[in-house]
From TrEMBL:
Its main location: secreted. Residues 1-27 form the signal peptide. It is found in: Secreted. InterPro entries: Cts1-like (IPR045321), GH (IPR017853), Glyco_hydro18_cat (IPR001223), Glyco_hydro_18_chit_AS (IPR001579), Glycosyl_Hydrlase18_Chitinase (IPR050542). This is chitinase. PANTHER family: ACIDIC ENDOCHITINASE, ENDOCHITINASE. Residues 28-304 form the GH18 domain. The keyword Zinc-finger does not apply. The lineage of its organism: Eukaryota, Viridiplantae, Streptophyta, Embryophyta, Tracheophyta. One of its GO terms (biological process) is chitin catabolic process. GO terms for molecular function: endochitinase activity. It comes from Coffea arabica. Its EC number is 3.2.1.14. One of its GO terms (cellular component) is extracellular region.
Length: 320
């Protein structure tokens, strides 16, 4: 033949490189928590970084059991309402990013309201969330008129009762026109002490497990075996639909360990977890700590298309 394949080859390589750096709504993605440090920049800035596919606004710290709902966004707006965020939420959504409200918190102070008194209380909380943050109607929407995509459960204190009822009630607000997405952020030990029953309902679209601050199931320097063993369990756990690897974005983000340097994540961890059908991506705590971490791993979250690394790696690691 009289033509050269080199221009075609170069064009294909260019397209592959572009696809590695571009978010794919159908592929794996990165989730991040935003809202717990006033120095982390704006919500719109996080979304315009191009590094995230899901943003959890953290946290609604009090709700249920007759308490007045309390939104705590640290230095961003105290007290709520934070209605100025409405336009920023809509910018995020226009970029294809799903925005969630996260319930709970990671300290006893934040978690003081993480108690549902009864099934009726759970359904009342669902109605409150629907009307004030999702597709319902209220005169006092704390984040303004913007309609969030879903609700995240980050329950780490309080009671383990009726979270399944809350998940079902929220799930039932979905319509053909607008789906209410649900996510959960359990600790990596199985079963999770608070969300286990809820997760097993299968109502959660995404489960981003916290593989940090938990010695029995997190990465330690040079040893991924505990992490792999836990991931293997979660990947076959009842009710888990799409599984994310939840990690700290810096060593300071996880005082009790679990930080994985980005080069180790890319070279040793992602090729293994991506070989599981339920792999959905990486969750990071948090935007404040994420200085360059998401930038470093972004091209590899879906696998490196130039080497097809994740397609060739098999689950040959020890999980015992």
């Amino acid at each position: 033949m009289g033509f050269s394949l080199q221009p075609l080859f170069l064009a294909i390589i260019s397209l592959l490189m572009i696809s590695a750096l571009t978010r794919s709504s159908e592929g794996a993605g990165i989730a991040v928590y935003w809202g717990q440090n006033g120095n982390e920049g704006s919500l719109e800035g996080a979304c315009r970084s191009g590094n995230y596919d899901y943003v959890n606004i953290a946290f609604l710290v009090s709700f249920g059991s007759g308490q007045t709902p309390e939104l705590n966004l640290a230095g961003h707006c105290i007290p709520s309402p934070c209605t100025f965020l409405s336009s920023e939420i809509e910018v995020c959504q226009s970029l294809g990013i799903k925005v969630f409200l996260s319930l709970g918190g990671s300290s006893p102070g934040q978690g003081r309201g993480q108690i549902l008194a009864s099934p009726e209380d759970a359904r009342d909380v669902a109605a409150y969330l629907w009307n004030n943050y999702l597709g319902g109607q209220s005169d006092s929407r704390p984040l303004g008129a913007a309609v969030l995509d879903g609700i995240d459960f980050d329950i780490e204190y309080g009671s383990n009762l009726y979270w399944d009822v809350l998940a079902e009630a929220l799930f039932n607000y979905s319509t053909a026109e607008r789906k209410v997405y649900l996510s959960a952020a359990p600790q990596c030990p199985i079963p999770d002490g608070y969300l286990d029953t809820a997760i097993q309902t299968g109502f959660f679209d995404y489960v981003w497990v916290q593989f940090y601050n938990n010695a029995p199931c997190q990465y330690t320097s040079g040893d991924p075996s505990k992490l792999f063993a836990s991931w293997d369990q979660w990947a076959s756990y009842t009710g888990v639909n799409t599984l994310f690897l939840g990690l700290p974005a810096a060593e300071a983000a996880a005082p009790s360990g679990g930080y994985i340097p980005p080069e180790v994540l890319v070279e040793q961890i992602l090729p293994v977890v991506q070989s599981y059908p339920k792999y959905g991506g990486v969750m990071l705590w948090s935007r404040y700590y994420d200085q360059n971490y998401s930038t470093a791993i972004r091209p590899y979250v879906n696998g490196d298309p130039l080497t097809c690394t994740t397609k060739s790696v098999k689950k040959s690691h020890a999980v015992a």
